Amino acid sequence: MAGPELRYDGQTVVVTGAGGGLGREYAVFFGSRGANVVVNDLGGSFKGEGKGSKAADVVVDEIKAAGGKAVANYDSVENGDAIIKTAIDAFGRVDVLVNNAGILRDVSFKNMKQADWDLIYRVHVYGAYKCARAAWPYWRKQKYGRLISTASVAGLFGSFGQTNYSAAKLALVGFTETLAKEGFKYNILCNVIAPIAASRMTETVMPPDVLEHLHPKWVVPLVGVLTHKSSTETGSIYEVGGGHIAKLRWERAKGALLKTDDTLTPGAIAAKWKDVVNFAEPEHPQGPANAMELLETAAQLPPSAPAEKLDFKDKVVLI
Ligand code: NAI
């Protein structure tokens, strides 16, 4: 069952990196559902080399040919002000920002060049910041905004050869969760997706029969839900791709509580190691408040029996 058709009539949606892959799919979707679309793309290679206007122009033409409204922008996301200005100049407003533009510079940490680190940071983190920063005053003023940040399972779990990319992608989680808190009272909802999809970025690392099931269009509907005016969801992370959509959250083990005095030694922690890693009855913290309660409880504990000898044998539970 397809469900109700969500529409975005009269809204302006900015999609960065919309000249191909996932970004193109978002742009075409929003264009087909009544939105004014800013199709941003620098037009370079997947490693971030070169630039050109063709990638964005092709998508704009496609949206217009189907009866939609779209304009192109060819700036790097590092120049987010110019991208948002394109939205304001063309359509007079900005409602949704999908921070999607991205590049890869996969290389082992040992062999990574400074430029590989710097460029990944500049496109993913600085670029997302600049675009969101430029949209923010409009969103606050109109008391409405929707932000999607694009993380990756590489950032959430680590991935060989991707220290630069993983660091940048997880940075976007902290960035977005904080914006969700700051934007909430202005009806600015901010969420993170960790997509998986066939694109020029993934075609070099996944076999064709797997890629076949991972068309980027299967990521779009979740982005449609999260950016719709009816959504109330904010500050969350979702894995999405190939028909699988799932929210992710933090989990805290039972944990050890020790009195903060001279008895809090490495040996005392080793003695409580089973509690430190005990996920049998986990908590799902959503902010620092709950952690502060735990710290207060620890401060009021009676002193622990000294246990200086470090002995992890039989105490470490593998999970
Ligand atoms: P893609 O390479 O097909 O598309 C990325 C687009 O961003 C390209 O059109 C490129 O020209 C544009 N771009 C790159 N640097 C830019 C800049 N500085 N300014 C403006 N545009 C720029 O890649 P794909 O797969 O569609 O990736 C989209 C996003 O999803 C990226 O942020 C990527 O890191 C993320 N992602 C993708 C996954 C996948 O399985 N495809 C997995 C996890 C994350």
TrEMBL record:
It is found in: Peroxisome. Monomer. Second trifunctional enzyme acting on the beta-oxidation pathway for fatty acids, possessing hydratase-dehydrogenase-epimerase activities. Converts trans-2-enoyl-CoA via D-3-hydroxyacyl-CoA to 3-ketoacyl-CoA. It comes from Polyplosphaeria fusca. Coiled coil: none annotated. Signal peptide: none annotated. Belongs to the short-chain dehydrogenases/reductases (SDR) family. This is Peroxisomal hydratase-dehydrogenase-epimerase.
